[in-house]
Amino acid sequence: MTLSDGTCVLPQHIGIIMDGNGRWAKKRGMPRKLGHREGAAVFKRITDICNEIGIKYLTFYAFSTENRKRPEDEKNALMDLFDKYLTDVWEQVDKNVKLVFLGDKSYFSPSLREKMIRIEDESRSHIGMTLMIAMNYGGRDDIIYAAKKTAELVSSGYMKTEEITEDTFSDMLYTAGAPDVDLMIRTGGEYRLSNFLIWQCAYAEFYFTDVLWPDFDKAELDKALDSFASRKRRFGGV
């Protein structure tokens, strides 16, 4: 993350696709849910590290709209883990961190949904790192969500069609108020976005690693940050 001239280059917004929990557990003869449990612990450690080094926005892909197709026992285990871990994170995280949940909350149980809303409300005024957790989230669903909100504003007379720009549309997304992703990290050896932040990653730098998420640590994060620091970001220019 430091160039040869000593300049420190950090991304403002990091997105992370935490892939490989199930495969990590399978390699060890464990149930998949134990892989998710270990992955949740890594989530906490990486969040703490990013906060300490000065990352302003950090977004994790925790549960996608496509994940709803998984076996019921695995989904139930994930919901139980989310419920417990949200409590742990809220109790242990730096009290200046702002938490935001991206996606359609109506999918979740009333108790989990209430907990998510309460955490968002209680951290809304925090001015430290913004931690965003995508739960029941899909990039295409995000764009449809924003398009419907924009259409409602136009039809009700609060917005004119000529006022629709990239900036105003971005303000309708689940990530409203956050900058676009600078660095997208995906673990587990896959090389795709899998419907994650597809609008917000228009000019993101991508870093793919074969390391499974439960094995991702500070050394692996440093590799991703060093790779980002070495790249020339032209945003379509020369």
How does this structure look, described?
With 238 residues, this protein is α/β, with parallel strands linked by helices. The protein has a single domain, classed as Decaprenyl diphosphate synthase-like (Undecaprenyl pyrophosphate synthetase), CATH 3.40.1180. It has 7 helices and 6 strands, in the order βααβαβαβααββα. Strands 3-4-2-1-5-6 form a 6-stranded parallel β-sheet, with helices on both faces. Helix 4 links the parallel strand 3 and strand 4. Helix 1 packs across helix 2 and helix 2 runs parallel beside helix 3.
In short:
The chain is 41% helix and 14% strand. With 238 residues, the protein is α/β, with parallel strands linked by helices.
The quaternary organization reads as single chain
Which percent range fits the helix content?
A: 40-55%
Total domain count: 1
| Number of contiguous helices | 7
Please state the second-level CATH architecture: 3-Layer(aba) Sandwich
| Major sheet size, sense and barrel closure | 6 strands, parallel
Which fold does the CATH topology refer to? Undecaprenyl pyrophosphate synthetase
CATH class equals Alpha Beta
Mean pLDDT across residues: 91
Low-confidence stretches: none
Gross geometry:
globular
SSE pattern: EHHEHEHEHHEEH
Strand order of the largest sheet: 3-4-2-1-5-6
What's the β-strand tally? 6
Tell me the span between the first and last alpha carbons: 23 Å
Please tell me how large the radius of gyration is: 18 Å
Amount of beta strand: 5-15%
Structural class: alpha/beta
Q: Please, what is the CATH homologous superfamily?
A: Decaprenyl diphosphate synthase-like
